[in-house]
Amino acid sequence: MPTLYTLAEKNIRKTYVYLGLFLGLIVFLGYVLSYVFGSPDVFWLAFILSLLTSISSFWFSDKIVLAMSRAKPIEKQDNPELYRLVENLCLAAGLPLPKIYIIETPAPNAFATGRDPKHSVIAVTTGLLERLGRTELEGVIAHELSHIGNRDTLLATIIVILVGLVIRVVDIFFRMGFSSRDRDEERGSPIFAVFGILMLILAPILAQLMQFAISRKREFLADASGALLTRYPEGLARALEKISQSPEPLKTASNATAHLYIVNPLKGTQATSRLAQLFSTHPPVEERIGALREVRV
Known about the structure:
A hairpin with a 5-residue loop joins strand 3 (110-114) and strand 4 (120-125). 67% of the residues lie in helices and 6% in strands. It is built from ten helices and four strands, in the order ααβαβββααααααα. The chain has helices at 4-37, 40-69, 80-93, 126-131, 134-149, 152-183, 190-230, 233-245, 274-277, 285-294; strands at residues 72-73, 99-103, 110-114, 120-125.
């Protein structure tokens, strides 16, 4: 029977595999463009643009997400029980206390954001506080603290940079590249040129598939890390059941922020087929619950 430690290690390894494939895609795309079109400048221009926009987004992302979610900060006197729960789990995890925000909505859910552990935020909905018992709430908070401790926000920013690089390379090429190709047809064979065009079309799709795959593995990792923190996987499993079975949609959530939440807040959009799940940022809740209930602490 797998343990929480082996489950966490398995998802870390898979994350690195996907990152390696992602970087391989970037290098291969750059090689194809440079060889066929003789224009490596397009690749580096796209990289610089992607890097600058992603860094600025990373620096201010927490403020943007909190504003979009209509989350309000609270102090210890506003909810002493929640504060004590977060404080105790932070002590156990060796993390600084994050700022705590509340979202006024009956839909149970939660997310974590912030550029690093010292500038982190946990936001929970009033519906979550009302519906979950203490051990279930501990499981959710431990999951979100694990995202912070595992540096998932930083990893997500790196992935956004890589996806943005691929998309911008393709966009810049289709805006500028064909004229360059007309001037330098002798640089590559027609067959390789067709392959290059096909690669340009498929590269953004492959990049986003890898982004979603890494996101799903980090959710599994946060589940395992959170369960290790509480030493009680069943608490998180029951919390995931209650959150996923809630019929209320989270009205302040959008496609831009849905990936942050512990469970997809956009009701009616959950992927059901295996193909649709490839384009989902969250693993199926049933798989997450099954994984938690199969392991031993």
